[in-house]
């Protein structure tokens, strides 16, 4: 990988349990390590045994000859705090978590532990819906283009990720909520007004995103097809549905603001995506 | 025709048409108003008052364009129950209580309209609503059948009323009931008029609506006895319409003393529920008939209906709803804006003031006959067949609703219908959690695709009547002139209510020039061994499949022969895509059901096909099938319509345009009505050879929409011989026109060069 782009994720942390998914989870993590040329920290919350250690060693041996790249941590305690604390302690930039498929194996959600980690971690979190043994190329990345102060950094970082994963296409989605339109369509006149206002809003949003895109270094944009798409719909929901419709391989979102008391009552933007992961999701911090 | 704008001049030029259609509608509204009021055991005039209040108030404050408001069928059952039970059998006191209930429900309707809760009607499954309407139809039928046979005293619930029908018939043959039998005879003849009216396609006969024929004949009969016969009028005065002597001075005062009584409140709720549903369904249906394709503001209309009900209640009238039958008559007679509703009220006032004496001569049996017909139409076995086609589970919902409605009341009935639907959906999906988990979550994504600019809508999880409003809200924000794709491939379950409504959208989009394609449903389980047809397919696509394999009729075989003689194509399949003929003025106010039996040449210049259409709902619902020829012209020509003079039905749709005379052809000008927006261009298009062609050939109705010619002989299917003649005529006409066009090009081109 190009040396230029690997300053984002220097240290990747993955929490593992000895489930049937162990192999796939570790394979996914090792591939990320390859892509980003980073270090890997494997955390297991539980007792260290000879047998477990050998299994992990055996799995990683297929990837890297360089033993120093991978550190295995054994810790006991509450999984959420163990993983968050370890990530902070080792200055990890990215935590990887596996999702749990629902009964029909077509929908994925993340468990309560992963959810808490996602909310409270200090670094980026990557949620993988279907950890697999084999490499799945990442072609299309969808990034949120919300009107938010974090968005610019997220977009710039997304290009870096896109370069590292050799993605070919990156779509920036601007979600515009219905409230901003302020029109209830009841008849032909209100429909006309609604259509006009939407057009203007979409244009405005597009200009805003274009400004951000202008600030992205040229070599980051190299070789990537950039698209923008504005969607009128529920914030945090539409982008997930969109990612599913266009069959994106990765969805990159701003991290939610620190959970305040109110967020526990009103569903947060990102909750819709967490409750039903459309694809792999990267929450950027 | 598109000139109808909001400008004053446009408004004034539209006025005569609207006055005329308001008049025709009032001819129906008068007997129906009397009849509906009588069926509710309210004073007959109360139905007319409702129509008058509705017409005036809603035309001022409403949000729809061509709807007619007045007393509705659906309410009869609720009002009858209220009037007969609220005061424990004292009908007049019950009527006063009911007036109070009508006023309260009017207030509720205003609230619903103001809070924009018109969407609430989307939460009712279609099969349950159809079941409810059928149950209302059965109830009206059961009661009014007896009244039609002059047995006005009968009481009881719907089931006992139905089982008593043979009794009422037998009684008539007993000698002591001779006097009653004549009244019953009037009723039966009236019923026959209702039934056969649609079958007689005589232009002049059709100018007066069927209910008015009945009234006119009944009044005529009473005058016959008064003026020409020695015998007294054989129908007892108890069987005639009772009218107060001073109609507009002595209003009954509503009695609010039961305001907090549980029974009263449930009546208020029932009235509100039924009138909202009936109105919303009617508005939706009438919007599809609007010649200028406007979209009604449902919430504004509900508010206006609420105000109208309050006004009507205070002056002793029934409550006001939007009524489909009268509205479609309005459209068919050229109504283009709300003034026709207003004029329908004004004519009703005139009738009541001028013809009080005549109205008192109408026998109740004649009015009951109109209602029997209406009730039958609502409950028609046809509806049952339609529901059954969609799936057994819909039939179950349908019957559950009917039985519950008839044995209990409307509100319980519809609730049981909803419950049955929910349970069936649970069973079909073998999961309750599936619904619970995503019921309150958003499930619709809509965006405008950047490249082609078309709208894309995707629906996730499940889509049924419970969460349909989310989808509907999005769809309503798409201009119907756009191209839209709605995709269900991420959706596990789609119910009949949603699919039916989407079909409505499809029609509207097509009418307004856009497109609305439904994709992704084919990947769902569509196998016939499963009763899940609901969730997968659009109801009738299965029907189409089965028809392709069925045997061809003789006519179809003959059509096939014609096609192969010309080495053309023949397609017997029913095609629901009627966009090719929808453009013509002739079909503007008609609802085309499908096109089938098409034969067309390989370049698809000529196409002959059978079209099935109806001229509106209920009363004028008789289906018409006709054979038309469309010709694709090589170049654009001015829009025009060519008719033989005097054919009213064709002509008044073009009212506002004057007959265009072609100079030097007085005979042609005399024989044909030529109409169009641009007389100058039409005159220059009608060259000698074309005029000569029309003069020397048999007559056809011809319409041109610029690029296509529509040629129709009669409003019925053409025989094989007629089709051959039509073909011959069409090919020769096309030659003449293309000759003119090529000459024009030759003439014009040197000019351009110089």
Arithmetic mean of pLDDT of chain A: 79
Strand content of chain A: 15-25%
The Cα radius of gyration of chain A reads 20 Å
Shape of chain B: globular
Q: Indicate the percent of residues in helices of chain A.
A: 40-55%
> What's the total number of strands of chain A?
12
- What's the SSE pattern of chain A? EHEHEHEEEHEEHEHHHEHEHHE
Name the poorly predicted regions of chain B. 1-5, 525-533, 535-550, 617-621, 646-652, 748-754
How would you characterize this protein structure?
The complex is a heterodimer of chains A (285) and B (754). Helices cover 40% and strands 22% of the residues of chain A. By secondary structure, chain A is α/β, with parallel strands linked by helices. In chain A, the strands form 2 sheets. A 10-stranded mixed β-sheet of chain A has the order 3-2-1-4-7-12-11-8-9-10, with helices on both faces. Chain A has a two-stranded antiparallel sheet with strand order 5-6. In chain A, helix 3 packs parallel to helix 4. In chain A, 40% of the residues are buried. By secondary structure, chain B is an alpha+beta fold. In chain B, helix 1 packs across helix 13. The chains are: A alpha/beta (285), B alpha+beta (754). At the A-B interface, helix 7, strand 10 and helix 9 of A face helix 11 and strand 3 of B.
